[in-house]
Amino acid sequence: NCMDPGWLISHKYTPSGPDNLQVAIETRLDKAGKLQPVLQANWTLKDDGSIHFLNATQLHVLRMSTNEQLCIRYSFQTRLTMRSPSEEKWLFSSDVLVLNPGEEYDVSVYNIPRPEQGHSNFDVNRQIQVPGCDHTNMKKTQLCIERGSLWKPNISLVHEPVNSSLAVIFSPSTMCKKYTVLMRCGSKADTRLVHTENQETVNVKFSLHEWPRFCCQFDAEIIPYFPQCDNDCPRLRKTNNICKEKPPQTDLLPPGYLFVPIAVVSICIIVAAVMCVICRKRGKHYVAPPSKDGETPQTPLKPQPKVLVIYSQDHHLYREVVLKLCAFLQAKCGTRVLVDLLDTSSVSMVGRLRWLEWQRQQLNNPSDKILVLCSPGVQAKWRSMCGQGQVKLKEDVLCPTDDILIPFLNLFLPDMHQAGMLGKYMVAYFGDISSERDVPSVFDIGIKYNLMKHFEELYFRILDIEKYQPGQVSHIEGIGVDEYSSCASGKALRDAIETFQAYQIENPDWFEKECVLSEEEVISEANQLIEPLQTLPVFEYIPPIRDGLPVYIHNVDINESCSTVHVLTPELNPGQHLSSVAVIEPAMNSDCRHLYAPSQVEVLTEVPLYHHSTGPESAYVAEPVFRSQSSVQQNWVSLSENIPLPELSLVQPVEMEEEEEDFDPGAKRSSSGSDQGYSSKGSSQHETPLEEDPVKALARLQEELF
């Protein structure tokens, strides 16, 4: 296991880790001239002061299937300088480790002495998959030749009707002396064990009496036992149909009386076949014959199956593939899909474990299933649970619901291996963007479905229907590998798979880029992307609000020489919402001229004046009459005049008309700051002298002289 007793020795100073590890698979000739698949590994040393404490550097290779470990150590007798004599970083390479075709390896390098326990870990590792013997570059390697990669058996099946037998003839390999020949027709199979010694051809016969007489198609399978693969060598098959069609006998027609029963039987068979096809369609129900009361009872529909989808958020493009698959299951297949991506609010409120426990309680129907979509992230997280280092993906940090796979494994793993529960769990992977090696070993007990190649078999599993039954093979149109993209949801799924596949081709190390060391690293990168974004400023406008209605005040200029008082009292119009109040007090002059300051309201007043004296103590009462058509503001103005009572001795009515004058720029006016836009005009209007009756004028003169 590549352990070193020197690791138990404590060191005060340890060197930094290696850098820039690159691995590849190449074929080389060994000393015997045989072609071998070898690991080509290159790495460098960091050019810092810690190289002073470097004693050795080591290459470690782990075979994933068997945990076999291989190590190569480069030890230094003297201290290395920070750089090589060519002023470049020290470069190390290895091409001597022979690898097995078709195996997956974990390659890592580290410097010695290794860091102390609890210190920073600096292992640099890579995973690599060795191509199988069916690959063009691997067929001629010695390991693949010893597994039969160049063997051409030339299998042929010969039917001998005389003795009712079937012979299997093939050419053996010079490197294999033992074979098993398997003959199968339907569910019946028979085997023969064959040993060869320098034979050019081998003939193995099977008696056809071992199979039913209706067997026509026979499958012959040869299992070789090469030294490098033994019981796990590739098998070769050959199929032959021994039934021959008899020529039609046109001269022997049935008698005329047989046409009627034959036609009736044929029609009945056709009707029965059509009814079977209709009844087998998904979502259809059988209608029973009418009952005695005239009603047509119907059998209840089969409950809609529910599928809980578990996955790993390897990449945002892979998450789109999962979502499109869920949409395809719901839209095309009529399956109710339970996935955290479509229920993020519930997952955020109750948490992942409670959400999963709730879903497990919902999956109480025997037809409900749990689908695990395997990917590189699923395999990496399973290894992390087994103690092979921590794994944290970028999408798990950015997603609000976090990872759902590890809580699922912790909660459902004990239930998965119980008796009778294996049929509830299904394991699948997308063959175009993943592979079967991404399936963790915990799922090896079940069937692995390659999507979308085996999607039809997966859907039959969801429906609990056997695709292959005695005498028939069921098929569902529209969900096969060449048909599923004909609908809108299937086309979206295919586009999502092709998009992610193209991204993988452009970025072969995409999964390593998605793995992060800490959440702070992802959050800092996200903040760097958010900070440059410039958002438009938000302005808040708060209008000033005054308590109560706007008030207009115009001060009064008082002239001591005149005792007449004019008061304008504004009145509010309760029927209008946009009304305002204006208090206007007119100015007085020595000639007792009336000064009005009306508002924008158009006012036409007919003022009756009552005159009692010609002296300066005269008083006038003006009662304006407002027009019925007012402006929008509907301002009401009441004009009253206080008159000293003792001076009213004789009153004679005089009519006076008062009209609105044009605006005078020099006149005094006031405007409010209200948003209603009211304004007031001030105007001065003299009374027009009236011609009196000579008789009345004489009477008045006499009264004054008296």
Automatic annotation (TrEMBL):
Alphabetized UniProt keyword annotations: Cell membrane, Glycoprotein, Membrane, Receptor, Signal, Transmembrane, Transmembrane helix
Topology of the protein relative to the lipid bilayer: Single-pass type I membrane protein
Biased composition (Low complexity): 670-683
PROSITE patterns, sorted: SEFIR (PS51534)
Biased composition (Acidic residues): 655-664
Pfam families found in the cross-reference section: IL17R_fnIII_D1 (PF16556), IL17R_fnIII_D2 (PF16578), SEFIR (PF08357)
Annotated compartments: Cell membrane
SEFIR domain segment(s): 304-460
GO molecular function: interleukin-17 receptor activity
InterPro entries on file: IL-17_rcpt-like, IL17R_A/B_N, IL17RA/B_FnIII-like_1_sf, IL17RA/B_FnIII-like_2_sf, SEFIR_dom
Cellular component annotations (GO), alphabetically ordered: plasma membrane
Location of region: Disordered: 655-695
Transmembrane segments: 256-278
Annotated protein name in UniProt: Interleukin-17 receptor A-like
The organism of origin for this protein: Poecilia formosa
